[in-house]
Amino acid sequence: xxxxxxxxxxxxxxxxxxxxxxxxxxxxxxxxxxxxxxxxxxxxxxxxxxxxxxxxxxxxxxxxxxxxxxxxxxxxxxxxxxxxxxxxxxxxxxxxxxxxxxxxxxxxxxxxxxxxxxxxxxxxxxxxxxxxxxxxxxxxxxxxxxxxxxxxxxxxxxxxxxxxxxxxxxxxxxxxxxxxxxxxxxxxxxxxxxxxxxxxxxxxxxxxxxxxxxxxxxxxxxxxxxxxxxxxxxxxxxxxxxxxxxxxxxxxxxxxxxxxxxxxxxxxxxxxxxxxxxxxxxxxxxxxxxxxxxxxxxxxxxxxxxxxxxxxxxxxxxxxxxxxxxxxxxxxxxxxxxxxxxxxxxxxxxxxxxxxxxxxxxxxxxxxxxxxxxxxxxxxxxxxxxxxxxxxxxxxxxxxxxxxxxxxxxxxxxxxxxxxxxxxxxxxx
Amino acid sequence: xxxxxxxxxxxxxxxxxxxxxxxxxxxxxxxxxxxxxxxxxxxxxxxxxxxxxxxxxxxxxxxxxxxxxxxxxxxxxxxxxxxxxxxxxxxxxxxxxxxxxxxxxxxxxxxxxxxxxxxxxxxxxxxxxxxxxxxxxxxxxxxxxxxxxxxxxxxxxxxxxxxxxxxxxxxxxxxxxxxxxxxxxxxxxxxxxxxxxxxxxxxxxxxxxxxxxxxxxxxxxxxxxxxxxxxxxxxxxxxxxxxxxxxxxxxxxxxxxxxxxxxxxxxxxxxxxxxxxxxxxxxxxxxxxxxxxxxxxxxxxxxxxxxxxxxxxxxxxxxxxxxxxxxxxxxxxxxxxxxxxxxxxxxxxxxxxxxxxxxxxxxxxxxxxxxxxxxxxxxxxxxxxxxxxxxxxxxxxxxxxxxxxxxxxxxxxxxxxxxxxxxxxxxxx
Lengths: 429, 429
Known about the structure:
2 copies of one chain form a homodimer.
Chain A: E1 5-12, H1 16-27, H2 29-36, E2 38-46, H3 50-53, E3 63-64, H4 67-72, E4 76-79, H5 87-96, E5 100-103, H6 106-122, E6 127-128, H7 140-146, E7 152-158, H8 161-173, H9 177-187, H10 195-198, H11 201-214, E8 225-226, H12 234-242, E9 245-255, E10 260-270, E11 282-289, E12 293-300, H13 304-323, E13 346-355, H14 361-371, E14 376-383, E15 390-396, E16 399-400, H15 401-412, E17 417-426
Parallel strand pairs in A: 1-2, 1-4, 2-3, 4-5, 5-6, 8-10, 10-17
Antiparallel strand pairs in A: 7-9, 7-11, 9-10, 11-12, 13-15, 13-16, 13-17, 14-15
Binding site for NADP(+) (chains A, B): 12-19
Pfam family, one (chains A, B): NAD_binding_3
Pathway (chains A, B): Amino-acid biosynthesis; L-methionine biosynthesis via de novo pathway; L-homoserine from L-aspartate: step 3/3; Amino-acid biosynthesis; L-threonine biosynthesis; L-threonine from L-aspartate: step 3/5
């Protein structure tokens, strides 16, 4: 096929992903034109500093610091700068001109996705961001399109490679969090400042995007209850392993009868669950839908080439629509949903206690659970490592977060209890 | 959103999947209209015999035996009859009218997909068939759209639930093929006549569809080299397990430098490979792409509700385009590819031999491999169960199918070799 149309493509940013996107646009032009029905002409790459940010393998004349001029001549803008500013202004500028935008900017979409989608619709432009969640894994389009005739009830994702690498290494080597983090930093799997990853904030942005698409609504990242993995100890990991579980940082979006809940926390899942076998820095998203049942999408969650693949899939999709001169199909209308407070969610707790080694302790603890209406699924007792008492592990049945938390506080106040050594939630049962 | 447009939907067939599709169209009309931008009006359900095929939970007045009249008034036709005739005629009739078609008919698409796609394009109609491969799993759209900016190099799918159920049961219980097949039939996982499944023909149709989409070309099921699982013995399964492998029936579409190969056969894969953990009747498709790397899509491969979910995803996609009055985006142009003969593919063999227990046997066998240019990765020897000789297992490095086959023939002709007890290929290394 000879492409009749030509589309001007502006690239903003030339980091790990941007450089690969530029390479693919240049090297693979013929195949992309075949698949899009339009030639894709890379008109320029905007960077802040052409001297320091220019990729020497790409033609020097493509680089510019004038992003606005580039945007103002483009049919398609690919935003790979990251961060809220100036990325958000550039995207808005493009959409207002009717240019279509592809971005991998999870923070921006999680914060302003609804407004940007609205802006795109008003100006007949397309806005796509498959690369914002789970890198190369096609997950947003399957959720938004393939499952559009179904009802998604729950999404559970391992969507942060750094934390999965750390938890997996803790699980397989028995090492402590700090040691594994240092190793991950040395290997390039974790940033020098790892807060966004290990604090769960990166996963929270992705959870917000997943929830918005899965439930046809708008959830922003500040509405996501977020707990990171910094408190997960080698003892927790070992005890979980002994009980047949593995600890994963999960981004969860759930549509229960009472309402929608979106949350990120380290969670125990059974070894037999498909998410349990996601190793290293890989990502996976597990989806439960009323008719489809259980689905899982697995792949590389980060990296220049994988993320560039997701960006290019969006570029071809946008180009196909533009080449066909096609009007845009409707997206789903935004539905009002009842966003639950975190205290209202239903989950089950896995509680570690250090208790006195004396008669009647188990009975007094069990009594507290009973008083709060929380039922115990299993209880196991071992001698404490220091020999001063017993280590107790309690797995509850499902109950309201608020009741579970109150129960833990009441148990902690018992004379027979030295300390609460860990509290973690269990998912996927 | 109040849907302004209304689309007439004709359903052909009311079996397990059709009945669920009708139920969803009726029960979920409001949500579907919201998501599509058009009301979806089920105008009728065509069956061969309204007395015997009518689903009593659906309104009697919807049922008709006059499929053609239904088709001639429809905007959207959902074909769930299966088989080539009359399904193919109905679909062609609909497309020629410009009506869009959704089908789950893998046999028809694998045989006539190119012609039907052509017909759809000529008449400005849409043809979608996500449900034809791997039931509920969104796999065709990710391959055709999400990965359109990448180059897929290999697709390996567990796409037949019956054979995966059988092989998984053989692996976990040690039972023989015949016994597990009988059990699968009793449980409803296998048909009374299981030929299409255990012979690999169902998987071959799906392999043809996957290859066509992944490589932007046309492959029909008669071009797929197909071997079933009827020869897989309990001994094979046990020996594979001992060596750290599991046997799966794989549908493989590969784009190597020399050309494209599409094939179905039982294959050993390492226990650590993501496909190895696909249990029971579940399906999964593993995709390797140049930039995206390794991806896997996992879920229910059959059943009324899961398959209906895939059908309804296509229905909403079609309706969105129609509601927006949008022209159709271009698909990829068909690329000519060099379809390799099966003898030209590259794979590695896992060979079971029963040999005489005498000095020099290993040397004579190894010499035959050397003469044929096939190198051995590993060799292990055990006493035969009947004590009359040794059982030898040889894993080769990758080589051409033709060379591997010739080598096996030459080894079989050696005096020291009683028999070749099994030959199986190894994938995913």
